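Reproducibility note. Readers wishing to regenerate the assembly model reported in the main text can use the exact inputs given here. Chain order matters: entities are listed in the order in which they were concatenated for prediction.
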Amino acid sequence: MSSSIRDSTGATTTQRTMDSDARTIQRTLARSGASWVPLVLASVMLALIPPYALGPFYLNLLGKFLTYAIVALGLDLIWGYTGMLSLGQGLFFGLGGYAMAMYLKLEACGKRLPDFMEWSGRTTLPAFWIPFHSPVFAIAAALIVPSVVAGVVGYLIFRSRVQGVYFAIITQALTLIANILFIGQQPVTGGTNGITDLSTIFGRPLEAHGTQVALYEVTAISMALVYVLCRAITNSRFGRLLVAMRDDEARIRFLGYNPVTFKVAVFVLSAAIAGLAGALFVPQVGIISPDMMDVVFSVEIVIWVAVGGRNTLVGAILGAILVNAGKSAFSDSFPDIWQYFLGGLFIASVLLFPNGLVGSYRTLLQRFQSWRRRGESPVV
Amino acid sequence: MADMLGHLFDGLSLGSILLLISLGLAFIFGLMNVINMAHGEFIMVGAYVAYEFQVHLASLMGGVDRGIWFIAAIPAAFVVTALLGVLLELLLIRHLYGRTLDTLLATWGVGIVMRQAARSIFGAPNVQVSAPSWLQAGLNLPGGVVLPYDRLFIFGLALLSVISLYFYLYRSSSGRRLRAVMQNREMASCLGVNTRMVDAATFGLGTGLAGIAGCVLTLIGPIGPSIGTHYIVDAFIVIVLGGVGSLPGAVLAAVLIGVGNTYLELWSTASLGKVLIFAVVIGFLQWKPSGLVARKGR
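Running the prediction on these inputs yields the following structure tokens for the assembly.
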């Protein structure tokens, strides 16, 4: 739309305006058509090629990165589009992960009590663990528990019109508190170690190549679906309202909308997405610990999105994969340098590339196009 | 009765620690609207200054037990962290005014770099600073209550910091300039105040306060490169409860959280106590969203 306005401002005759409008519409159509084709192609390629092209180790690694990409998509929705920096995504990811791990642990233990409960002297399974014998319940819980936490906390926060940086601080505190709570309640959560020694899923060994491929496929498809969902949301009226709230919340309120409802909705959605990612993460990595639901991890999710480009969705996926690929490539052999690099990445992504990779690429592309257009027919 | 007095003292002592660690953060956040996530790392730097003083300078100052080195380390920590803060302001923060959320991310990156630098310089394991001997005993009150001297010292230092900050802000010409810039930058600039200098000085003062906090934290426990991350979220909770940009609010909030936390921990467990405090703060914000002492609108 904005490009059509820009084009037509310089036109002196109606004919030129109509021409440029028609061109804009054509371009828009072509672009929207073109944006679906690569998406489908990319999803198919992502689902089909890696299981054959990559060895088990790298397939597993990529599967893990894709779960990170899913969390990043959720964060982009709430941060990039709605402008609320949530530092609680790590918590929601962890909650989803714990829900899944509880099921896997019970499956691994059979009739016996989970080992960490025995160590801390419990003799019976806590009541809230019992339903986790059912995988359906566990998967549902991985989505619902984060949603409920986000819903309750979000409602309380947004109702009192806590905004901007306070939201970041409070969600950060929430993550820290949950982290402390999970470490402190060792008899029922596994404490600092978390839940370990998971062996099977639906009766199949986790380490088997077939299981790993299946888990990878589920993750890749989930990511594609989450992407489509986020894309559909951002293209919808609801998505435009989110952006409008980011840019001027008071105005939205004066227009008769209640921002609380929308904000809670998007917070809950991003929490559910993070929970899903956590549930997919655990069977592939084989462990969940409080480290996965702490503040550091939450802030790292932010940097993935910032590096890829907030407000673009594609950038969230790219950023999550690239930063983590860099991390696993360098952090083992050069842990010191990686930390300096990571710190520098935070500073550079704010100071030099506030739009991230995708944003910078688009700016370059636009400049190039306008330069070419100017060559054909000088507008303005 | 004796127990209650002891718990109250524990609470006040925790409150004074919270106040020391959040004072600089509140100062920077309230006046400059900058979230300094590297605040914890400035605390860490202050703690390592105390450590270095003990290792290298204590023998020149009459030994570890005499504790002259410790008294000297406090202003030294202030100066070192304040200079680092000024440097950070000049290089980075300067470009980010008005982008509060971005300051959060950028300073988080600074924090990572500082933590790693400390790891490279001092090594990853924690180190212990031994307190001067005159801080190791306690004041015996009738009824069997012992008030440890180190806690009393921290309490006094927190009090001193608040009072000096108050006098600096409201009773000195430099403080007046600072307040002028934060209230109306253009007007202050027109009247001949060097606003860039004031910005750098304000940020440096805030980080300098973190240095003091770090110095006294060595009395409480071992220190390490990631000591700052333990305290940063607590400091933020104090600010949110107190109301941003309010010195009295920060004092009140620190004391309330300190005392509240102590009693809630007694009543439940350490981890549950923190959860409850957080719930209380969230609940309180429902009632007063802008904190205990709200800043007056201009």
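We highlight two features of this model. The two ends of chain B are 47 Å apart (CA to CA). Chain B has a mean pLDDT of 87.
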